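Record type: monomer structure entry
Structure origin: computed from sequence
Chain ID: A
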Amino acid sequence: MNFVRLLCILFLITSGIKLRPTKKDEFLIVDEAWQLMKYEDSANFLFSLAKRARKYNLGITTITQDVEDFMGSRMGRAIVANASMQFFIEAVAISC
């Protein structure tokens, strides 16, 4: 994905969170979060969003197949440390 497009999408998400008419609890699910973690700017954005989410009654779930996507970077470790819940599920290979 083009980095400029990614930043535009992130801006739209942030704007939508701040400007939504109701303040009910909502959740943002970030699947394939490794794509955000591979760029410093988008990793910083995700960390900043995780820190400010409660202010907007927003819960964030990040999903990735490899925990090293988070634990391998300073921002990733900070996101995991800031989480109220952490689930690590190991995939087991099944041979048929």
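Annotation 1: Helices lie at 3-19, 34-37, 40-52, 68-71, 74-82.
Annotation 2: The chain has one domain: 3-82.
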